Structures
1.
Amino acid sequence: MTLRVGVLISGRGSNLQALIEACAKPDYPAEIVLVISNEPKAMGLIRAQGASLVTETIEHQQFEDRRTFDNSLTASLEKAGVDLVCLAGFMRLLTAEFVNRWQDRIINIHPSLLPAFKGLNVHERVIASGVRFSGCTVHFVRADMDAGPVIIQSAVPVHPEDKPKDLAARVLISEHESLRLAVRMIAEGRVRVENDIVKISGVTSPANGLINPSRLN
Ligand code: GRF
């Protein structure tokens, strides 16, 4: 049985695209059954339609408050029989009610090594801070923004000459890989949450860390 994934987007949809390509492989244990965008012009909708996926636009402006908007999301996700909700560049804050409804069945991808650099304009702030590494985090969603049990993280170096767009591009590659892997691990039933910490079975971990700068010229 494949895991039925509902993807929520607001824009470009490159993470959605990564998942679409993964799901097209015969041995991938998940399928995308619904893509919802709150932005009618999201490029991700075109990607989804190109892959013949079911799409829906639910515009937040049409609702009187967050609660009624979120209820509409839940109604569509339930109707589609979604097992796992995947926030992939979805730019709306969700109510605690919605998050609790999907507890441990909703994941988010964020372009930093959480809990560092929550929120927006991440790469600008990472570069300004002088840290040597950044990366991405896939985590289960909790009511607080960019918080919740970490499933997978991937580190990339920050180079001295990086502009935000350079770092964003490097992190984005790691996002696509991490999201595909996280959904696979969840679909394979390897991921569980215990006391708000994620435990994963049947995986290996790297023996050593990374170092940056790595050497002198
Ligand atoms: C990604 O950087 C993701 O981590 C963040 O929003 C961006 C969405 O990119 N939450 P895309 O729409 O998947 O291309």
Note: Residues 164-187 form the longest helix (24 residues).
2.
Amino acid sequence: MCKRFYITTAIDYVNGQPHLGHAYEKVITDVIARAQRALGRETFFLTGLDEHGQKVQQAAQAEGRDPQAYCDELAAVWQSFAVKLGLAHNDFIRTTQARHKTVVQAMLTKLRDQGELYKAPYRGWYSWKEETFLTDKDRQPDGTFDPVWGSVTELVEDNWFFRMSRHQRWLIEYLEAHPAFVQPDYRRNEVLGFLRHETLADLCISRPAARLSWGIPIPFAPEWVNYVWFDALTNYYSVPAAAGDPVALEPLRGYLDLPATDCRLWPADIHVIGKDILKFHAVYWPIMLHAVGAPLPQQVLVHGWWQKDDEKMSKSIGNVVEPGAVIDAWGLDAFRYYVVRELDIGSDGNWTDAGFAARYDAELANGLGNLVHRSLSMLKRYRGGIVPPRSDALAGEVHAAAETITALLSQGRLQAGLKTIWNLISRANQYVDHTAPFKLAKDPSQASRLDAVLYTLAETCRVLGVLLLPYLPDTAHKLFGQLGLAHPPDRIAAAAWGGLSPGQALGDITPLFPRREVRADR
Ligand code: MSP
């Protein structure tokens, strides 16, 4: 099997609440994955959950539950969230799965054998109430810790460290030589700036099992468990390694006893992540892989953060955007459209309910919805729903737009792709206004002209369905159903003009994005 395009999202904390930020990341990754498939590349899309750590252990304990049972219950909620978002992922990793644990342990053992790990006293400010180490970032302006942390004392305990600092120079040179490794460029510059001006500390990668049992045991020192980022980052590698990908298995030979298969995933093509976890992915992760002797991923693609009404979303303010509620009220594709259209990948976003409703009305109901509904309704009314002979009136323009969109999709420029699709929609709506088929229909001498206009519009709708498939899969399916076709073709090449056959009978026509009553909140 040839190497598949392998794309991942961050794995969400299992004890968090699924919100707009998580949904955004998963949707943009899904659009890129679907676009790659439509471009004809075999694609593997991985998402999942980060399940170990102090907070999960404490929350489970507080409820008197076994942490695994607690995670299983929450994982079911996250998995149904993925379904709700319409994700076409190929696998869902949970860091509590055996396939993952064995890979983490193999990595740790190899690094230990290579002298990359050492044991040393770890010193830090420890909150006994929250059972966690605090950092200087947790201090108040006057230098003290907030009383919510309870008693905070300096604690010294032995832990395991990973010699990251020795790879700092190598990483700087790698980032300089591989400009595409971190994107957008300003994020790459941020990482390089940090690496050039600060000395990397070695990374503490363990906690004593006596204090924190909810983690992967360090195989050669089971009095400790692996502490969390090392565990979490490795998820991207565990899936290919556990599936027998020879490229992923090779560096772990002698440490992971698994047969090679024809699975070809590693190295990952894109890790999609939010800006808050850039350092982990652009510093820790490449160093871990380099130290273990594994090829590096092609790219870390860093998206921005969403706020709501110009404020950070938080449970206490009560302004968390819940994608599930938006989807129930407006439909899945309205949500997917808004988040992809609103932001270029990298920029921060600001959700407002009014902004969402405005895009729905102008771009989905009046733009795409209106074009499809009036084009197909006229074809029903004037030609009994039977596609007339082919015409090439808009063929050139549609072809040019499809070429541009295909190129933008292949570069992952999702927002620009949507803008180009909507330019085509506006152009087609203009064409209806200029050609005025409702007038042509009244004049029998214009019958062949009317045929040409109706074919052109129906075929433009079909091409739009092909181009929209990665972004709005449900809408693309509905549109194809209305054209009387079974389902949208899975290749973007099908956007070539002339795919609609004369004589084809349309299906039932209903508005794709019904107009909404004016709501009281606007
Ligand atoms: N578990 C770690 C990631 C480990 S990856 C090896 C984590 N989890 S998280 O649940 O806090 O965040 C998951 C992803 O959601 C991150 O990429 C994060 O940036 C993203 N977002 C969380 N809140 C967000 C917004 N408000 N806006 C956009 N994305 C945000 O970090």
Note: The radius of gyration is 27 Å.
